[in-house]
Amino acid sequence: MVNSKISPLLDYQYKGPGRRKAYFEGWYFKLNLTDETTLSLIPSLHQQGDVSYASLQWILAKGQDVRSFALTYPSGSFSLTLQPFHLVLGQSYFSETDIRIQEDELQLSVHFQNLNQYTGDIMGPFRWFHTRMPCSHSLLVISGSAQVTLESAQLQGRFKSGLYVEKDWGDTFPQRYIWCQAGFPRQNAAFYFSIATVRVDHLSFTGFIANLTLQEKNFTFATWNFSDCKVLGNPADIRIGLARSDVMAAARIMPQPGVHLNSPVQGMMDSTIFESLSAPLELKIKTLGNSSTFFTERAAVECHNWYDSIAQPGSK
After folding, report:
1. 239-274 pLDDT, tens per residue?
2. Are 23 and 17 in contact (CB under 8 A)?
3. pLDDT one-digit tens code per residue, 133-166
4. Distance between CA atoms of 104 and 155, rounded to whole angstroms?
5. 20 to 30 Å CA-CA from 167: which of 46, 94, 198, 234?
6. Residue 306: CB partners within 8 Å, gap ≥ 6?
């Protein structure tokens, strides 16, 4: 029996294209290297008809210096095996216990340690509609740690890093959405939130999913469990309110300079989104009989077309 405290295994929950002719599947690794430095890795697989390729993007944010890189791996230069999971991209790979990146711009070694994994499906009953939705989402590692050795033009060294892992799959990102994630390691807390225009076949509606971790206890907020959600503010000052019977959360996010990333449309990386890795985020929590406030300057946030729509964001 594997003791996850000693030899953690990451379940990548590979979905595959199924009957889709256009398809993408991507993972998002956020490594909090120091109080002022964050590295995000985004490996992904793509297919459109007979055309297939893989890609790897990464963002390195050191203070307010944020840089991004993107590489493409044509058919024949990448491979995937399961049980155990092993995704090879050129000379780099992602496995159940390790990541190894060997590129001119980045040499990286990551060994997973403690993993606090989300054991359910954040999509709730909507998991039954995955094949009929353009984009689905999974939380994999809510919080964790990793040993990291890194060498790049911007940063070199060995780090005891925080870790967060999620994934998306389908064919196309939502038309409009807000996504954010923040960790508060000193308080043993973490916060994830996403709200988007959701499509199931010809039905379209605003849906949200969120998770708050306090002392390793998860509080999930979602359209499907009848939690309440309000989004106000503007792209430079995002206000989020969440509530369920036993806990309330209010987040204020102020996105900072970031980078453009490639994003999927009909399986191919033909669009772009904007991501900040150094956004100040204040999180206020009220539980039965208690209240607390957390703050970080290292939240990750994407705000895509949310405030550009005629429809005003509001409750679910």
Report:
1. 999 999 999 999 999 998 889 999 999 999 999 999
2. yes
3. 999 999 999 999 999 999 999 999 999 999 999 9
4. 14
5. 234
6. 176, 177, 178, 195, 231, 235, 313
